[in-house]
Amino acid sequence: MNDKRYGHFDDQHREYVITDPKTPWPWINYLGNEDFFSLISNTAGGYSFYKDAKFRRITRYRYNNVPMDNGGRYFYINDNGNIWNPGWKPCKTPLDFYECRHGMSYTRITGRKNGIEASVLFFVPLNTFAEVQKLTLTNQSNETKKLKLFSFEEWCLWNAATDMENFQRNFSTGEVEIEGSTIYHKTEYRERRNHYAFYHVNAEIQGFDTDRETFVGLYNEFANPDAVVEGKPRNSHAHGWSPIASHYIEVELKAGESKDFIFLLGYVENEQDKKFVAPQVINKEKAHAIIEKLNTTEKVDKAFAELGEYWDALLNIYKVNTGNDKLDRMVNIWNQYQCMVTFNFSRSASFFESGVGRGMGFRDSNQDLVGFVHQIPPRARQRIIDIASTQFPDGGCYHQYQPLTKRGNNDIGGGFNDDPCWLIFGTVAYIKETGDFSILDEMVPFDNQPGSEVTLFEHLKVSMDHVIKNLDPHQLPLIGRADWNDCLNLNCFSWDPNESFQTTENKSEGSKAESLMIAGLFVVTAKQYVELCQKIGKEEEANRMQKAIDAMVTAVKKDGWDGEWYLRAYDFFGNKIGSNECEEAKIFIESQGWCTMAQIGAEDGMVAKSLDSCKKYLECEHGMVLNNPAFSKYIYEYGEISSYPEGYKENAGIFCHNNPWVIIGETLAGRGNDAWNHYAKILPSYVEEKYQTLHKVEPYVNCQMVAGKDAAKPGEGKNSWLTGTAAWMWLTVSQYILGIKPQYDGLQIDPCLPTTAKEYTVQRKFRDAEYNITIKNPEGKEHGVSQIVLDGSVIEGNTIPYSAGKHTVEVVM
Ligand code: BGC
Ligand code: NOJ
Q: Cα 561 to the chain's mean position, in Å?
């Protein structure tokens, strides 16, 4: 491995600092917190959208292009014929200095060339439908400089999917308006759209362009647009083709002088009867209001400071100090940040997800919830109601829903039989964090049908029942289309490459396909359900479910155990999957994770054996692989899982999402050293050197998959940012390793540590209380609290009873 470095952490500023623009893959960040969102790479590539990356795409992006990362917000500086960009791309003129600082919902990119510094701060202010680009130009030379500045954005024609394909229409629809220093994009506004976008700068402009071909030149690239090269805007007015927005500004800077320009990329929605102020003239009132709010450096700096305070507040809720920077920075900054991003984006928009394919996942969103519920409980509450509203009356679920409409997505439908359980998982996490049992009484519809409302509790009940009512031959849960592993398609039976593995069921009648993953998931979530029922006085319901749990445990012990580990599934015909008897894929991680978390057969040594088998067969240098050995050929009965080459994705990749399940299993077994070793292997800051070259993707967040030991290139990371890994890493470290667990009545303290951990503190805001917790481990124990002193008095057990106010807690292991 070479030791080339592209960047480093700056913990004090909560930033990752990239010092070489040619990262092994674009290293991106996310802007926006609620409605208006942007993706931004370290060279300012990326795009913006309002709420929905498919239906309200504001700017255009080109995926998988040559060169990589094409399209973005670009500033061109023409300094006497010398043309460059602060972010290096697209001109790629070598810079005298380059730096990109990705922080919490902002990115600052700085370039210097021939005595000029250009620094751009990108962020979306709170409660604002606009991206701010504050460009500061500074003349660091000894002479006066005259610069020609060109901005550049390319509009997307709103629907990101049709924008990429329906050119017979698209090339005729584009429309813009220009007013002063603002360029308005109003394609389709004349008909059914009530929204437009705009690009503004708070300075007088000496020209503009809105037609791409005129500005760039048909056979040029973004690197050498005609207008920029000649230093002359065309003042073009787009009619159809590809509308863009480019401002032209002549800037004179004396030696040492510095000037700010505030660019705003905004979005506006108007009421149907207020769309126009004159025939064809759009109503710009709301755009003017956004501009007015942000048209000076002072106003922008204030908005930026508010964003910083917002993040201070979010990150002050759980703060650890272990003295180990690598751990602390992930827990206190980056892991929590990634959780918030996955909450906002689910799996829709990243540099691996095009934003056109998928809405919000039912199971994904419930899992993401445990990563941010402590930070923004009201939004978690709303998310739970939104998700539950897409459920069917029998407890089954739409697998996905669109964030704009909040409706279930018919293209994918339902039938993923793990989905219902996750609603309990998410809801219980919410109530334990907030103590808000009233959510259970909320009236929530099925499939968004008015009139079908029942309480949320009833939704939880039908969720559980959905599992119990769909058991078969071995009294184990039927898998349906797939369980958590979308690629274990046991009813698919496809020989047709045009069929989707996700939605095709060529054979389901008489299926005997059962899932041990769902069995474990059921036991874990049904135990949560029983505890909840007891808590709210539903004893009978608790007893009913306890019987179902006991039956499931019996079934797993009888037909789900392979001798050294838990089986993974039974296929359509009732044959074992994930058994020593199988030729390939003898062991899978998911059932080890869930059945150990469920503690099934712990008393018979099954849990310990399963965890040992994970170490023996699944663990490798970069983490634990999903299955072993990898499938080397396509298996008709199994579906997509066997479609991937060995070591990638669901075929024996290190699917980081599921490593924490085994890690939590380890902590429940009290095996702190093993838990820590597994955890550190996939903790970005611990393997940051690897990220620089081998992993390729961003070193400050987890990626969904790292190529496994059977891969051609083990250790290569892919699919960064939008992954359930974020929430699971958070749950694992905050609750199971550091051991601070919200319970209905208080905070349980139950760490499981490596023997080397001797002392740490956690500051935890919990409901209306704040706990300052010190944990001492003088004997280097892995597990077991021996004493807790709360505000000076020893308490019984390991749960601190909740009471508002500030508290000091001293814990000795
Ligand atoms: C991927 C899965 C994903 C599924 C649904 C599959 O191709 O391997 O990770 O969940 O598609 O989008
Ligand atoms: C990614 C999907 O978003 C998630 O729902 C699924 O569980 C995993 N892939 C595993 O297939």
A: 34
